[in-house]
Amino acid sequence: MALRAQTGPYFGDFGGRFVPESLVAALDELGEAYDLAKLDPDFGAELAELGRSYTGRPSIITEVPRFARHAGDARIILKREDLNHTGSHKINNVLGQALLTRRIGKSRVIAETGAGQHGVATATAAALFGLDCTIYMGEVDTERQALNVARMRLLGAEVVAVTAGSRTLKDAINEAMRDWVTNVATTNYIFGTVAGPHPFPEMVRDFQKVIGEEARQQVIDLTGGLPTAVTACVGGGSNAIGIFHAFLDDTEVGLYGFEAGGEGVDTERHAATITKGRPGVLHGARSYLLQDEDGQTIESHSISAGLDYPGVGPEHSWLAAIGRAEYRPVTDAAAMEALRLLTRTEGIIPAIESAHALAGTIELGRELGSDATILVSLSGRGDKDMDTAAKYFELYDEENPK
Amino acid sequence: MRTVGPVIRRRNEEAGGALIGYLPVGFPTLDASVEAAVSLVENGVDVLELGLPYSDPVMDGPVIQAATQQALANGFRLADGFEAVRRITDRTDAPVLIMTYWNPVVQYGVDRFADDLAAAGGAGLITPDLIPDEAADWMAASERTGLDRVFLAAPTSTDARIRQAVDASRGFVYAVSTMGITGARSDVDVAARTLVARLADAGAPASCVGLGISTAAQVAEVLEYADGAIVGSALVKALADGGVAAAGELAAELARGTRPE
Ligand SMILES: Cc1ncc(COP(=O)(O)O)c(C=O)c1O
After folding, report:
1. Which among A54, A56, A376, B62 is most buried, taking Cβ atoms within 10 Å?
2. Is the pLDDT of residue A402 over 60?
3. Beta-sheet pairing, A14-15 with A10-11
4. Does A178 touch chain B (CB under 8 A)?
5. Is the CA virtual torsion A382, A388, A394, A395 positive or negative?
6. In this model, does residue B185 exceed pLDDT 80?
7. Which residues contact A401 (CB under 8 A, 6 or more apart)?
8. To the nearest whole angstrom, how far is the Cα of A402 from the nearest Cα of chain B?
9. A141/A64 same-domain check
10. How many structural domains does chain A have?
């Protein structure tokens, strides 16, 4: 079977629905609505039109030769999801799920967010569709992504700072699930990545696979052939699966996911789930997981809020297990250097998440050499990260420290 | 083996039904959680439900979250759960169920977990984030060891899923009284009454209602139609605020709800 034809609930040994019974009816309802929508040309047309007239699809590709000099002179091509309305790939998924919310007749949406990009995208769609909106965000993240908190509130969403556990993305997901269990009659959960219980991994992937479908043709048009490799950062894995998917059955194309290596994978402060984790159950799915001997989730660490997650989507675990994609860690320091390098050489400020893909690509380019063409998912822009970057690179005036 | 079915049947014959009390292992300490559990039984709790602290308790409200987070911070290990079961069953006749999220069982090994729980004298498992659809390993391990397995049914469950929960469960079916997570509520939903009737129609030998029960009056009300009433957050809060004595006093008060006027 073509790898691209794989659907949930299971990707090999990974996936499933490990959820409270109270959520099963809602997951079934969503899954059935999605299965009908998939077959409905009106749904596809409406989503494509929103992509065109609201998001700005297709996103362009940009070749970056000055940056590429630092990457073994390989040919480097960026897929510019940073230019989407709201600043990242997250909007692709959110518009699809917001349309579904309307189809199942619910009036309120909730979402978790780490970097705030998925929260901003959800709040944006809620404004567009006239839905009530509550966003759960770990308290650590509301602090490091304060700009996005303000954006969500301006868009009319309620932002709840989650103070439980590690106060990051995983705890925001727990709190969103509690809300959903309680308010499932009126509320749809717009999940932000390709993790979670079925149907989310399959559905979110389907809404994101437009990235790779566009980019595959764009790269062929530009270069006359397929790329040597496709790269992306991996938090839960939605931008990565989005750009990988169209290439899954192009066996000559290497697929590389870059996980957050934090302070190094030999320290305890990282979020390199596939590199350092082992299979377990978290947030409704069986997948790789950072956990201790007793199955307690280990807190992850990354300078990037969007990658600071101890789990990963089940389809990535499967692609890793069958050897179709390779996953490597990238440290905070390497990502920040790559962020500065792209900014200085090409005038494009990437999100810190996407900078992990760039840092990994620099290494990969050196390995593959100047004959290689590498397509990189530039999943988001760096505006939200200015405070983190300004502190990291000491860009604030000393007289006026922020 | 000490299982829950016979106790629930007996309490329905001699009283209004069974009182099931929840406490987390290791809160505030391992010793105190054992003392508190014993005290619950001495004060009229018929079946114990011991929660294993877990890093990501999606079905739990703030009271139980705070308690289990403290237990984890104090260094709770899975082996403490078996030790608590052993110490409690040595001192009381009440059957003890373990309530656990699924990943710790998977990591310990489903078969090994079942063997160690049975060896400790435990009665079985309540699995809040394991639905029968995903439970093949646990069905096999519980068949082999004779442990009870308690699955949940919710007001939103379809008839087919209600039947599945009834067929998969042994001991009782946990009827989720209201849509939501753990935490005391001022009124237990009417949805519970309908759900228990649907479970009975599907052939459930016993249904116990939980989520939101905190007073003797609510226990009495639930036992009008259900076989057991499950109290969690209210007991944990009593233990947190007033120690073992307060938890025992609340248990005695709640047990009054099991006796018909
Ligand atoms: C710009 C950007 N890239 C990547 C991610 C990571 O998510 P995923 O792995 O699902 O693409 C995020 C998450 O917030 C993000 O904002």
Report:
1. A376
2. no
3. antiparallel
4. yes
5. positive
6. no
7. none
8. 34
9. no
10. 2
Range of A381's domain? 57-87+209-393
In this structure, the answer to whether residues A196 and A299 fall within a common structural domain is no
The strand ranges marked E within A223-368 are 229-234, 254-262, 278-282, 285-289, 325-331
CA atoms of A283 and B175, how far apart (whole Å): 22
Tell whether A244 is covered by a domain.
Answer: yes
ipTM of the complex: 0.95
Residue B187, pLDDT above cutoff 80: no
A217 and A179 together in one domain: no
Instruction: Give the model confidence (pLDDT) of A306-320 as tens digits.
Output: 999 999 999 999 999
* Element spanning A101, H or E: helix A90-103
Ligand 1 touching residue A356 (CB < 6 A): no
Is residue B261 over pLDDT 70?
no
Lowest pLDDT segment from A45-54, A212-221, A390-399, B93-102? A390-399
Domain B4-256 homologous superfamily, CATH: Aldolase class I (3.20.20.70)
Whether residue A401 is contained in a domain is answered as no
Nearest chain A Cα distance for residue B243, angstroms? 24
Q: Does A26 touch chain B (CB under 8 A)?
A: yes
Looking at every residue in chain A, the average pLDDT score rounds to 96
- Assess whether the C-beta atom of A354 lies below 6 angstroms from ligand 1: yes
pLDDT band at A401 (very low <50, low <70, confident <90, very high): low
Any idea what the CATH number is for the domain that residue A274 is in? 3.40.50.1100
